[in-house]
Write a structure and sequence with these properties.
The protein is an alpha+beta fold. The protein has 4 helices and 7 strands, in the order βααβββαβαββ. A 7-stranded mixed β-sheet has the order 1-2-3-4-5-7-6. A hairpin with a 2-residue loop joins strand 3 and strand 4. The chain is globular.
């Protein structure tokens, strides 16, 4: 398994991976435009030249960043790829001196295993919600807010 920063040529594979889970209601969809605009935030897992996992670290403010769009191909689920990506984002945040990460997720158990804890969504700063107003599920968000202090 190879982990690396995403390239333009990875966008369609990342989009397909996210769309697979979004179509099943376990992840929010991401438009291609968002992927292109935030491509430099993405890290991917690659197996024999194929994108099998992806996620991004989005800096929100001086003391907070978000793990977003984390997905692993179904065939590769349960092999530690998601956890490896999360650990890479934790280390990246640590290198950037960002003391706290959060995720808005439907995958509570996974993030708990990675050391995250549930918090009230309202405890997160308003900057977190900048994209929420464009979400089809707003204002009835079912995602769970989870944080980790690093």
């Amino acid at each position: 398994m190879k982990y690396r920063k995403a390239k333009i040529t990875d966008v369609e594979s990342i989009h397909a991976l996210i769309t697979y889970y979004a179509d099943r209601g376990v992840m929010l969809a991401r438009p291609r435009a968002m992927l292109y605009e935030s491509l430099r935030e993405f890290t991917i897992a690659e197996d024999q030249g194929r994108v099998v996992g992806a996620g991004s670290l989005n800096i929100i403010w001086e003391d907070l960043a978000e793990i977003r769009a984390l997905a692993v191909a179904p065939k590769y689920a349960g092999q530690g790829i998601g956890r490896c990506l999360v650990n890479m984002f934790i280390n990246e945040a640590r290198d950037l001196a960002i003391p706290q990460l959060f995720a808005l997720t439907y995958q509570q158990e996974f993030f708990e295993k990675c050391g995250f804890a549930i918090v009230e969504k309202e405890s997160l700063p308003q900057k977190v919600w900048k994209e929420c107003v464009n979400c089809p599920k707003f204002p009835n968000c079912e995602e769970i807010a989870m944080t980790i202090v690093i």
